[in-house]
Amino acid sequence: MFATIRRYESTDQARTSELVKKADDTLLPLLSELPGFSGYYLIEADNGVMSSISFFDTSAHADKSTIVAADWVREQKLETALPNPPKITSGEVVAHETRELVQA
C-alpha cells in the first residue's frame, strides 16, 4: 500500500466550507474511480492549513492521484482558495493498523 499526503498552506479560510463540499462532491468520486484506490481523508487544521491523505495499491496509482488532484484544483477554479502548491509526501506504507468503527 502507498500513501500520498498533500499539505496545503495559506488556504483561504473563508472558503473552507466550499473546499470541503467540492472535495466531497467532485474530488472523491474521481479518486475513488482510480485503479488501486483504497481511501481518502481530508483534514482541516488551524491557521489556513488543510491536508489530505490518500491510499493506493501501487506507487503508480498514488502518483496518478496527484495529477488528478492538481487537475481538479484547476477545473474547479480553486487556485485562489488554494494559492500555494501542496507540499507532497508519498511513499510505501510500512506499518499500519486499522480498526473498524462500530456505531452504537
Key features of this structure:
alpha+beta, 104 residues, 2 helices, Alpha-Beta Plaits, globular, 33% helix, 4 strands
How would you describe this structure to a colleague?
This protein has 104 residues and is of the alpha+beta class. The chain has a single domain (2-92), classed as 2-Layer Sandwich (Alpha-Beta Plaits). It has 2 helices and 4 strands. A 4-stranded antiparallel beta sheet has the order 2-3-1-4. Helix 1 (16-32) packs across helix 2. The N and C termini lie far apart (30 Å). The model has no long low-confidence stretch (mean pLDDT 90).
Task: Summarize the model shown.
The protein has 104 residues and is an alpha+beta fold. Helix content is 33%, strand content 27%.
Query: Number of folding domains?
Result: 1
Alpha-carbon Rg, integer = 14 Å
Largest sheet: 4 strands, antiparallel
Helical residue percent band: 25-40%
**Distance between the amino and carboxyl termini:** 30 Å
CATH architecture: 2-Layer Sandwich
Quick check: average pLDDT? Answer: 90
In total, how many beta strands?
Answer: 4
Q: Mind telling me the CATH class?
A: Alpha Beta
Query: What topology, given as strand order, has the largest sheet?
Result: 2-3-1-4
Low-pLDDT segments = none
The tally of helices reads 2
Question: Could you say what the CATH topology is called?
Answer: Alpha-Beta Plaits
Coarse shape: globular
Q: In what range is the share of β-strand residues?
A: 25-35%
